[in-house]
Amino acid sequence: MFGRRSQHDFEDEIRSHLQMEVERLKAQGMSPADAERLARRSFGNVGVAEDRFYDGQRLAWMQDAGRDLRLAWRSLLRTPGFLVAAVGTLSLAIGAVAGMFNVVNTVMLEPLPFPRSDRLVFLQGTSPGSDLPERYDLGNEFYQHYKENSKLIDGLFTFGAGTSTFRAAERVERIPMAWPSNDMYATLGVRPQVGRLPVSTDNDDAVVISDQLWSSWFGRDPSVIGKWYFVSDSLKQIIGVMPAEFRFPEDETMLWVSGEIRLDQIRAGNPGAPIVARMKDGVTTEQLAGELTRLTKQLPDRFGATPTYTRIIKGHRAIVVPILDRIVGSTLRTSLFVLFGAVSVVLLIACANVANLFLVRAESRRRDLTVRRAIGASRAQLVRFQMAEALAVALASGVLAVVLAGVTLPLFLRAAPQGIPRLGQAGLDAPTFAATFGIVLLVALACGIAPALRASSPDLSALREGGRGSTGARAWGRDLLVIGQTALALVLLIGSALLVESFQRLKNVDPGYDIRDVYTFQYAPEQPGLRDGPSLGRLHLNVMDHSLGALIPCKLAFIQHDDLRALMRNHFHLAGLFWRDTLIDAAVFRQWVVNVGRRQSPARMAHVLCELLVRLRAVELVDDHAFDLPVTQGDLADALGITPVHVNRVLKDLRKQSLIALQGKFLKVLDWEGLQAAGEFDPTYLHLVKKQAR
C-alpha cells in the first residue's frame, strides 16, 4: 500500500492498539477514563508517531514536491509579468539548444542504419612525395586485390555517385544515383523490401530503386518490378526497392545500378573511387591498415605498372577511416560543435538573466520569507519552495521550447545548405525529449539555487524595521550575474563578428574569372528524339555515346530531328555544311587521340594552348597572341589526362622556356613558332583558313 491509504491504515492501527490497551486496563478494574489516560500515556505522543511514519514513507517526498509545485505555480500566476518574461526567455534558449542537439545527434552521434555499422570503414591511401593528394581514393586494382587476399575483411565494395537521367513514360528527370559493385548490399547488410538484389548475370542492366522513387514516381505499385526504363539513356530493368531508411552514399540517392568489376578491365593507375570494407570482429583500424599496406606492395607485380606508378606504390600507406567519420567530415563536425557551443552560451545568458529575476523576486518577498522563517519554517523548506518555483518555470519553458522546436526546426532544415549528411532525418525524437528534460532540470538548478540559498537565510531584523532594510551588503550575487551575462554576451558578439568577417573574405575571394550572372545547371530534355544532349550523330545513331558540357557561359538552341531533316531535304547546301562539320569533328578526334595517346605531357600542353589560340583568334578574342584562358587547371588536367599538380609543373616549364607568360587567367604566347614546335601543332585539322594564327 502506498500514499494516503498507508497513512490511514497506520492511524487505524494506532487506534486499535489503544483500544486493546484500554480494554485490558478496564478488565483489571480501572475506570474507563483512567484506563484511556494511562493507555495514551504509555503509548506516547500519537501525533509524533504519525509524523515519523509519514516521513518514513518512500513516496512522501513526491507528495511534498507536488504540494510545493502547486503552491509555487499559484504564486507565479499572481505575478504574470515575471512568469511571461522568465518562461519566454528560457523557452527560446532551451528550444535552440534542443534543436541543435537533435541535429548534432542525428548527423554525428547516431549510428548508421546498418548492422554493426561500427565495423564499416572507408579505405584510402597516401603516398608522401608524390603528385597525388594527401589522401586519395583507390583504383579498381586495389579493390580486386584486397577482396581476394585480405584476411581481416568480411566484405568490401567500390562505388561511384552522381546524377543522370531517369525516364519513365513521359516523365524524365535527372536524379541522384549510384553505381556500386554488387557486393555493396552484402557488405552493408541490407535487403530490399520488394524484389531482389543484383547478381553477376545482371551485368549493368539492372537497377534497384529507393523507397522515395518508388512512392513519388510509381505510387508504390509492386508491378514496377521487372519493367524496363531508360537510365542514363540505356534500358535497364528495375529488380528491387530498398527500405525507406536505406540512404547511401547520399541521403538523396534514389537509384543504384548493378555492376561488377571485371578483372580483364582493370588498368593499374586509373583514377580511383571510394571503397568501403567491413572489418572482422576484433580487428582494429591499425591492424587493417598494416595488412592493406603490405598487400599494396604486390600490385605492380600483379597488374604491371609504369615507373611512376611503381614509385607511388612504394611510398603508399593505407588509411582506414570509420565510415561515420568519412561521411560527416572534420569540417562539418567542427562547425556543428561550434554552433552547439554558441546556443549553449545563449542558454547560459538566459539562465543568468532569469536567475537575476529570481533574486529580485526574492528581494521583493523578503518580509514574507522572514515571517515564514519566524513562525517555524525550516531553511530546507524555504530552499525547497524557492527551487519549486524555479522548476515550475523551467518545466513550462521546456514544454513551450519543445513546441517551438517542432515548429521551427523543419523551417531551419529547409534553409540549411545542401550536402549535410543525414540532415533530412533530423526531427524531434526520444533522445531529444530526454535531452530537453535534462536541460530543464539543469536550468531549474542554475536559475534557482542562488536565489533559494539567499532566501533561505532571511534577516529577522527586517520585521523590526517594518520590511525596510539595507540590501547593499548582499547585492554581490546580482552583480556577479550581471558580470557573467555581459562577459558571455561579449564572447558571442566577438565570435559573430569574426564569422561575419570570415564570410565577407570568402565572398571577396577572386576565383580567377567573372562569376557575375554565371549559373550552373543540369537538364533532362523531354524531346523523344533527344535524350541526354544535342548531337548531329543522333540523326543516324540510336544511342548517344557521349555527353557535352560547357566550360564558360553559352546559349543552347534545340531543333527537332524531324525539322532538321526537312531543312536538309529542302536546302542541300545545309546538308553539305552539316556533313563538313562532322568531318571536322572526326579530324579533331583523330588529332586528340594522337595528342593524348602518343605525346608527353609538355607536348600535350603546348598543343592544347596552340589550339586554344587558333580557335579564339577565329572569333576575334586574341590580341597579339594574348588571350584570357577560358579553362581552369582542373579542366586542362581532365583534357590532357594528367593531374592538376602536373599541369602546374608543365606550365611552369613552358614559362621557363620563354614560350608563354601566364598571369592569373591571362596568357600570352611569347614564341609562337617555338610553342608550335613543342606541341607538334599543325592547325590544318581545324580548317579555320581565314583566321589562322601566323
Give a summary of the structure in a few sentences.
54% of the residues lie in helices and 11% in strands. With 694 residues, the protein is of the alpha+beta class.
Main features:
694 residues; alpha+beta; six-stranded mixed barrel; 24 helices; disordered N terminus
Task: Characterise the protein shown here.
- With 694 residues, the protein is an alpha+beta fold.
- The chain folds into four domains: 3-58, no CATH class; 128-315, no CATH class; 330-505, no CATH class; 571-686, Orthogonal Bundle (Arc Repressor Mutant, subunit A), CATH 1.10.10.
- It is built from 24 helices and 13 strands.
- It has helices spanning 3-27, 32-43, 46-56, 60-77, 80-109, 140-149, 184-188, 211-218, 285-296, 299-303, 307-314, 323-328, 330-364, 366-374, 379-415, 430-455, 461-464, 476-507, 561-570, 572-598, 601-618, 633-640, 644-656, 672-679; strands at residues 120-126, 153-168, 171-180, 194-195, 206-209, 228-231, 234-241, 255-257, 275-279, 317-322, 626-628, 660-663, 666-669.
- A hairpin with a 2-residue loop joins β2 (153-168) and β3 (171-180).
- α19 (561-570) crosses α20.
- The longest helix is centred in the middle third of the chain and has 37 residues, at 379-415.
- 24% of the residues are buried.
